[in-house]
Every structure is written in C-alpha cells, then in structure tokens.
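Appendix B, example 12.
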Amino acid sequence: MGKILVTGATGSVGRLLVDELVAAGERPRALTVNPAKANLPAEVEVAKGYLGKPQTLPAALERIDTVYLAPLPATVVEFAKLAKEAGVRRVVTLSGEPADYEAQGDPSQWHYYAIEKAIEEAGFEWTHLRPGQFMNNTLDWADQIRTTGTVRAPYPGAVQTPIDLGDIAAVASVVLRDDAFNGRKLLMSGPEAITPPEQVAAIGSALGRDLAFVELTHEQALAEWSQHMPPGVAEWLLDGFRMMSEYKSEPVSTVPDLLGRPALRYADWAIRNAAAFR
C-alpha cells in the first residue's frame, strides 16, 4: 500500500489517528502548521502546511497514495485539484452524519456534503466517515459544572448516539489501510442512545456529586450561545438538537463491526474525562 497523508494531524481526531496508524505498522506523513511543536512519533514523516492555505500543500502531497482529509469545506475544491495533480489515488474524508440531509438544502449551507461532493466529483476513490455527535462536545459544559453544578441547555429530549474520538480514529485507521471500503459512506456512532440529562447524570456519577440539568427554551439558548459564536452557527446547532428531539437517533454497529470490540460508552468517557469537569 502507498503512503498515507494525515491532514489536521495535530487536531482532535487526526492526532489520535497518527498513533493508530503507527501502532498498525504504518509510517504516515503528517500535515501540521508547526512541526516543531507537533510532538509526533519518530516513525512519522512531518510536513509543514495547512488545508486552509492550499499553497502549502503541493510538497506534502508528493508521492502520497491515500489522504485522510480533515473537514474544511472552504478549501476542499483547491485541495482536490492539487491532490489530483500530485497523483493521489484515494481520499478518506471525515464527514458527518448530516451530509445527506444537507444535500437536500441550500448549497450555501453545505458543510459535510460540500466535502463529499468535491472529492467524488474530482474522481478519487473515496470513503466517507460519517460520525454523529462527538462525546467531547460536552466538554463545553465544564465551566458551568465547575462553577454552578448545573448544565443549562435546550431540548432535554434530544436523543443522540455520541461517539468517542478514539473510536473514530481507530475506524479511520482500518479504512485507510483497506481498499475494500472504497465507495462506502460509513455512519458511525457510540453504543447507546442517550439524552443530555442522562449525559449530565453520567458526569455527576463520575464526579461523585449530583448535577442539575436546567432546560432552556430555543430562544434562551440562542441568546446565550450567540454571545460566544456567530448567530448563524448557534441557530445551526440548535436546529440539530431540535431534529434529534423529533427524530430519535439509533446506534449503528460500524465501530464493533470494524474493530472487533465495543464502542466506548458515554459513562466510561465521563470517567476518563472527569478531571476536565472538576
């Protein structure tokens, strides 16, 4: 098999993926903005660059067969052009569960689907990884848990199937090393359907203290979240939680099917990450 390039190699999934590939006996190339601070394993070839600056990519793409593509829709068309010129054969994207839903809507609102569409239209062999909610997203609750012992959030009935970043990376490592997954869109989830109040209870159990869930209305959440993010982003996130309250997510078996072990449960994730909430 040819050389693998991991983009976003110091990001939340990319860094874990580098370790997974090294553990599997691969010697990947890792794309990072600051190689001196990347602290990557000795087995890794480090390339300086960033997907958001396509002019930095040609050298990193030389002699690469397969790319793990971190999600950055703004420059994906430029990436695809440069990767084709460099002779890249296959691209494995980190997409997301909403890709098909996005495809039915306004192209100006595409995120995950924009990535998938650009890669397919460029003519690569491809696999799209489509995880749902990340367990790590609930680290956003850490400040309010530490200071108030409560979590203020909307849509307590939103049923999601959050997945651990480590499980995403482990699946990506398997897929990158096996052409049998070409042409597949792999939905990925954790092992259980769980609501925000249940997640709060799991964190409380990990901390050994009772935590409270305080329900916000859509309007209250929009007002609070818009203080910390662009209003359009806040509305997009809220719309996702609204949909999860109307259409209950169900776990899929991709992680155990590909890895031969169960996906990490949220309660176990909370125990591993308890220090972040103390």
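The chain is about 40% helix and 15% strand. The first strand starts at residue 3 and ends at 6.
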